[in-house]
Design goal:
- The protein is of the alpha/beta class.
- It has a single domain, classed as Rossmann fold.
- Helices cover 34% and strands 26% of the residues.
- It is built from 6 helices and 11 strands.
- The strands form 3 sheets. A 7-stranded mixed beta sheet has the order 1-3-2-8-9-10-11, sandwiched between helices.
Length: 219
């Protein structure tokens, strides 16, 4: 099978050939690329397989996974296709690489966060957890998609208090939506615009390590 998406993969340097590893799939924002996401998760590279998935649609010097009618209003057919193809890619990568299927994580920023939350809702416990940075869940996903339980999915949602693309109200609404569905929810606000601060990065890295059972949070 030829994968639908181009991707960048980082395998742990000293891999045990008899071991399966946790994986973080990264999903970039609109107009960005998979290599820009690696810096956010590079400290995990000794313990995780890291796979950056590149959007298939050119946008300026970068890429996107789907196009928009207007801000916050995805073109439905393109969004549906992205959700379907990303799920297929996750299964493809799990077969191809020594990935522990019980420890699959998605980490997305902006458009990638939107898709990460959507996939959590459609894949359920097929994912161990997601990190959603400055995103939202489209209304049509909530009302029209076939949703699965996320009660066993770990969910980390963060949002910038001064986000000029998706106002902080959207972060609160998104967290409220997941609060009723995901007991393992962490929601944090950071004093940033539409971006990821160092504090935000440290928090989700520690969260991922803890959730995987690899270490405890550093004081």
């Amino acid at each position: 099978m030829k994968p639908f998406y181009q991707y960048d993969i980082h395998l742990p340097l000293n891999m045990d050939p008899d071991k399966k590893y946790p994986v973080v799939f990264t999903l970039h924002g609109k107009g960005s690329n998979e290599k820009n996401m690696f810096g956010l998760v590079a400290p995990l590279a000794d313990d995780f397989i890291i796979i950056g998935i590149r959007g298939n649609l050119l946008l300026g010097s970068g890429y996107q996974y789907y196009d928009l009618k207007s801000l916050g209003n995805p073109i439905r057919e393109m969004f549906d296709e992205a959700a379907k193809q990303l799920e297929a890619f996750i299964y493809y990568a799990t077969e191809k690489y020594p990935i522990d299927p019980g420890k699959r994580y998605l980490l997305g920023f902006s458009q990638g966060a939107i898709l990460s939350m959507t996939l959590a809702l459609t894949m359920g416990e097929e994912l161990k957890g997601i990190v959603s940075l400055n995103g939202y869940v489209p209304d049509f996903v909530k009302t029209e998609y076939p949703l699965r339980s996320v009660k066993d999915v770990s969910v980390f949602i963060s949002h910038g208090e001064y986000d000029s693309v998706f106002p902080v109200r959207i972060g609160h609404e998104t967290a409220s939506y997941f609060k009723n569905l995901a007991p393992r929810l962490t929601f944090n606000l950071y004093p940033t615009d539409h971006g990821v601060s160092e504090e935000n990065q440290i928090d989700f890295l520690n969260w991922l390590m803890q959730d995987t059972g690899l270490t405890t949070t550093k004081e």
